[in-house]
Design a protein that fits this description.
The protein is mostly beta strands. The protein is globular. Helix content is 0%, strand content 53%. The termini are far apart. It is built from no helices and eleven strands.
Length: 118
């Protein structure tokens, strides 16, 4: 079992930055890929970014490329999402999720609210 806890959300003005953290517990993190997802009010949850379990390969939603960066610190068992140049449309609850190697995302955090004011 992997437990995930997100932190770092908050209220920021457009153009500002936030860094989200996803701390894992329960197992070694090295074999788990981690993704960030978000859900805005009235919208479906969407993929934002992911980092692989093996060589640290990354993937991003097109609208956040160049603004968001996902990284991981296996020693600290934490994955980060650095969000720069935030826009009001980035407002959502952000969730991190983990999957064993290339499997399904089976473990989810409780979410952290990000609100970007215009």
């Amino acid at each position: 079992q992997v437990e995930l806890v997100e932190s770092g959300g908050g209220l920021v003005q457009a153009g500002g930055s936030l860094r989200l953290s996803c701390a894992a517990s329960g197992r070694t993190f090295n074999n788990y890929g981690v993704g960030w997802f978000r859900q805005a009010p009235g919208k479906e949850r969407e993929f934002v970014a992911a980092i692989s379990w093996s060589r640290g390969g990354t993937a991003y939603l097109d609208s956040v490329k160049g603004r968001f960066t996902i990284s991981r610190d296996n020693a600290k068992v934490t994955v980060y999402l650095q969000m720069n140049s935030l826009k009001p449309e980035d407002t959502a609850v952000y969730y991190c999720a983990a999957r064993y190697r290339n499997g399904e995302y089976a473990y989810w955090g409780q979410g952290t609210q990000v609100t970007v004011s215009s």
